[in-house]
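Dear colleagues,

As part of the handover before I leave the project, I'm documenting each prediction I ran so the next person doesn't have to rerun anything. This entry is a single chain, and its sequence is reproduced below.
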Amino acid sequence: MQQHDNREETMSIEWLWGIGLLVLPAAMAYAVMRNRNRTAAEKQRTDTATKEVYRAQEREDTGQPLPGDRT
């Protein structure tokens, strides 16, 4: 009886791996296709927002304003 339960558990883990190996590449392909057609303005907006987040985190970590910060 114990061996039967272990086999069922192994089968479910194998199924999860199989499903994961199908879903992950599909999600990656979707992300690549979705981001491929961004305009220059969208790319600039993303870059600016990313830099702002990094600067805010640096200010939070150091407790001091960074050179070039507007107050």
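Helices lie at 2-36, 40-62. The chain has one domain: 2-62.

All the best with the project,
I.
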